[in-house]
Each structure stands twice: as C-alpha cells, then as structure tokens.
Amino acid sequence: MSLKIQYLKTKNKPSSNIVLFTDDNFNINKLKRHLSNHEFLYVNDLLKASDLKKNLLVFELSSKKKIVLVSIKKKSKSSEIESLGAEFYGRINYGKSSEYFLISDSLEIKNENFISHFLHGLKLKSYSFKKYKTKKENINISINVIGKKNIPSAQTRLKFKALEEGTFYARDLVSEPGNVLHPDEYAKRIYSLKKDGLKITVYDQRKLKKLGMHALLGVGQGSIRGSYLVTMEWKGAKNNSKPLAFVGKGVCFDTGGYSLKPARFMEDMTYDMAGSATVVGLMKNLALRKAKINAVGVVGLVENMVSGNAQRPGDIVKSYSGKTIEVLNTDAEGRLVLADALTFTEKKFKPKFIVDLATLTGAIIVCLGSEYAGLFSNDDKLSDQIFDAGEKVEEKVWRMPLHKNYDKLMNSKNADVQNINYVGGAGSTTAAQFLQRFILNKTPWAHLDIAGMAFSKYGGALNSSGATGFGVRLLNKLVEENYE
Fold it and tell me: Quick one: angle between helices 274-288 and 472-482, nearest 10?
C-alpha cells in the first residue's frame, strides 16, 4: 500500500471524494461554496438523521464521490487533531485505491499547524510492516490538500516529515526478525545514517574489551554475533554547549540466557532492542530537521543467547565504571548493557542530561499496563519536562519512586552490586535503582521503562498492531519545547 500526500493549486471544485471541516455541531452552512447546491441539500438532509456525537461522518453521493465531514472543537489539542487524522485514515483504508481532496479553506478555527497535525496522525496510523509478505498489495491512497488558508510552510512540513521518518525508522528496526537484525547488521544500519549528517562511531568487541566494558560484553558472549556500542552525534548548536544524551538498550534477541525464558511468546523478544530503536529514530529525526541543539545517542547492541560460552548465573563481571556486578540472573541482562553505556556516556560526553530507554522489566507492565511508560529520575525538573512532553503527544509516562532504602535489595555479598532483587517486589524500581549506581557524577538522569509501550498486539490511536516507535515523538517534544 502506498500513501501519497501532496499540496495542489487548483480553483476547480473536485469531482471525486472531498474532505471538509465543520464545527462540533456539524453545521455546514459555511461550506456551501465548496459544494454544489444539490450536494449541500442532500448532505444537510442526511445530517438530520446522523449521530452528531461522532467526530467524523462519511456520506456517499455516488459510487465515485464521498463527502467526509470532520468535526472540530474550538480548542482542540494537537493530540486530538492527530487522533482525528488517524480515525480518518481508518475510515478510508478499505483495501482499495482511492483519492481524496482535503479542502483547507473549510477550516474556520485558527491553528496554523492544524493540517500538519491532522496529516501527521493519518500518516502514523498508515504504517505497516509487510516487508516479508510475498504477495504485495497494489493499493494507492492519495490525499490532495487544496486551498489558500491554513497551508503549512515548507519548514513546518519538513519538521513533521522528519518526525515521521524517525518514528517509522524506529518501528522498522523493532519489526525486523532476529535472524535479520542481529547486532552485526544493526551496527551497519546505524553507520549508514552518516548520510543524514550524524557522526557515527562503532566500538566493536576488541575496543569494548580494551575500554573495560565487561558488563555489556558478558551479555553477548554466548552469541556467534558481535557485541557493539555505537554513538551518534549531532551538532546543531552554534556553540559548544553540552549535548543532550539519549541511551538505549539494544538486545536484538533475548532468550534469557541460562535463566531461560518460557517458550511461549519468546518470539516477541525481537523487540527487546526497542529502547535503542527509539534513540536511533530520534537521532535520525533531529538530523533530518536540523535541530538547533547538540545531542548524542548511545546504544549497546548485543544478543543474549545460550551456548557453551554464555554467561552463567553466579558470574561476576567488572563494569566500565570499575564496579563489580554479580550476575544472579542472566535474564536481567538489559541493565548490564545500560550500566556500561550510561557510565561511558556520562564520562565521555559530559552531557546536560541523560535519558535512557529500555524494555527493562515485565514488572512495569504489571504496574502500568500499556498506557504509561515507567519514569524514574534523579532530577525533578527533567522528570517534569518529560511528563509534560508525554501528555502533549499522547506518549504518556508515570513517575515511579527511587529511594536509597531499595539499595539493600541490590547489594551483593560477593560483589559491589547484584543484577536482580531476589527478595521479591519492586522489580522495576530496583532495576532503576541498579542503573542509578552507574551515574557517577550526579548528571540529571531519567530512565524510561517502555516494556509495555514498545509493541502493541492490538494497535493504538496512532499505530496499527506491532511496533509503536514509542519515545521518538515524546523526546522530540522534550527537546523542541525546552532546549531549542
């Protein structure tokens, strides 16, 4: 299926399907100039028997022409407009080719970005991953925007296009099967983003061993694939200000290692690299829209497999920070990857803040389901900024507690720290408490546990089932509103 959106200059009334915006009462009196007299009377008559509580009504005038009325509240939030666009896509995606003319002049409310948000929601909802389907759908949907008012500027279009490309890139990465997107291939794909203006540095196993990243390397040592740390730098500020740092867990497939996961649903563990995909998608977006900030993305890429060389429960490894970790459970592997990545990011880049993302614990799903990501932070200001950004783009987070009293649950008898709390309870908090130990210089830090948000079995307002790309739009909004 292909979706084409274009802006046309035409004075002629469209002969095929048209999309018009009305007030929240579906009053069409101001839309007469966009309809023939017969069409206006016909639609006005049908409205009398319609459910006006809906957001969107579709009237078939003939086999070749529909009129779509989209009801707009006077004070619609951006997220509500995007949801309308997604709903519109759901109504026109009938599995056959179609063309629609969206008349921007029919919009009465003043919102210069309305059309952009409407089409943004439509495009996000249209995403599907069918790369490996041998039978291709030959369906084409065209949305032609016509009119003189409310037309977004070229710069605004670029911003939304970059955000969509970043989100789709993240979704593509998460959707790939483990036999295709293993760490070797993943590192190559990230390296290809040099073409977008990012400075990419790939640290392979030899370099990681030299650096002393034994926590990260320990997770991947059972795989025939390599283990990597990859950095992506964007320098969009005119000065040498401290960068904003984003760190992602990239476990390309997670068997659990010797602490083996149950067979049922193990196939879903291809999305255990979703935190890293968000970071990669975000950095691509920032580069494409030429964000006026300095930023760095850091991802640890590994595969957690079982073999004669795999890490064992009870092993002790020395992290990049110098702290030793007792590995009591090899399925608590993401925090080992992040431990080295966080300390490295803080030490090398000295960032203004660090936000890490990971599908870290099943416990966060028990707590928050698939409505909120868990937010843990050592900084109230950063935490509030992330929360507010999430509310605006409908990628919601909920702050969870961190407290020194949880430390005793992660203290090891044999090393500086153990990688899991075997006493029971507070699984997500103790995981975050573990990560916090690897922030050594009190850098403002936030951890987003996105285990319940990265992948959807049933789909959401702005995505069909599958990878969601959660976090790209959230962190873009954080940057846009607070740091540009």
Answer: 40
Decide: pTM greater than 0.90: yes
**116 within 8 A of 32, measured Cβ to Cβ:** no
CA nearest neighbour of 252 among 174, 361, 329:
174
Catalytic one among 335, 437, 473, 477? Answer: 335
pLDDT the model gives residue 192 = 98
Q: Would residue 335 show up in a list of annotated catalytic residues for this protein?
A: yes
Q: How far is 313 from 422, CA to CA, in rounded Å?
A: 13
CATH of the domain at 465: 3.40.630.10
Measured CA to CA in angstroms, residue 120 lies from 39, 50, 114, 363, 412 at distances of: 29, 28, 10, 33, 49
* 365 and 447 assigned to the same domain: yes
pLDDT for position 111? 72
Question: What is the band of 145 on the pLDDT scale with cuts at 50, 70, 90?
Answer: very high
Tokens standing for 388? 């507010």
Q: What is the mean pLDDT of residues 238-260?
A: 97
Does residue 455 share a domain with residue 367? yes
Position 457 confidence tier, pLDDT thresholds 50, 70, 90: confident
Cβ proximity of 149 and 107 under 8 Å: yes
Distinct helix (H) and strand (E) counts, the chain: 13, 19
How many Cβ atoms from other residues are within 10 Å of residue 423's Cβ?
10
* Last residue in a domain, options 152, 178, 199: 152
Confidence bin at 370 (pLDDT 50/70/90)? very high
Domain of residue 148, residue span: 2-152
Among 261, 348, 352, 399, which one carries the catalytic annotation? 261
- Find the CATH number of the domain harbouring 109: 3.40.220.10
